Amino acid sequence: ARYRGVIERLAARTNWGAALPEGRFRGFAAHNSFHSYVATVVEIALQPDGTPRVLRVDTAVDCGRVLNPDGVRAQVEGATVFGLGLALHGELSARGGRVEQGNLGDYRLLRITEAPSVIEAHIVPSEAPPSGIGEPPTPTVAPALAAALFAATGKRLRELPLLKALAAG
User: Fold this and answer.
1) What CA–CA distance (Å, rounded) separates 80 from 39?
2) What are the φ/ψ torsions at residue 55 (nearest 5 degrees)?
3) 105 pLDDT exceeds 90?
4) DSSP state string for 104-127
5) For helices 69-88 and 141-153, what crossing angle results, to 10°?
6) Which 8-state DSSP code applies to residue 136?
7) pTM for this model (two decimals)
8) In this model, does residue 154 exceed pLDDT 90?
């Protein structure tokens, strides 16, 4: 029932099923963890070089009774940006048995110019006990983005980071 609640709320808020403007594509993913339920829609457009531009991310959450809605929205926004960075760029490499990335100076994060202009958190009213909201929104971002890329390109990308997988063809 809680999965259904987040999916229905998200479908209504994103007008899922309606035609998109030409050149725009969407993907969907749902997940539960820490007794919270999350569903995400990522909307993209392809740039002239074939790379995606994430335009909008909508996430519906049922994290039980919400005591601080602004805190929930902030967590969803942060998880979205973190998840996009992981999905598009996140990669660790090893050489000689050691990880090459030692800190943020040599690990690629999402840049502000790559962030979507719209990130919406849709809170589903719930009488369940309050539950986790820090981590649950992150895992839906990469599969929703991969689904949007499939809608745009017809290619199933099954490895992260998605930009590297997309370039590999």
Assistant:
1) 12
2) -95, -35
3) no
4) GGGS----GGGS-SEEEEEEPP--
5) 50
6) T
7) 0.94
8) yes
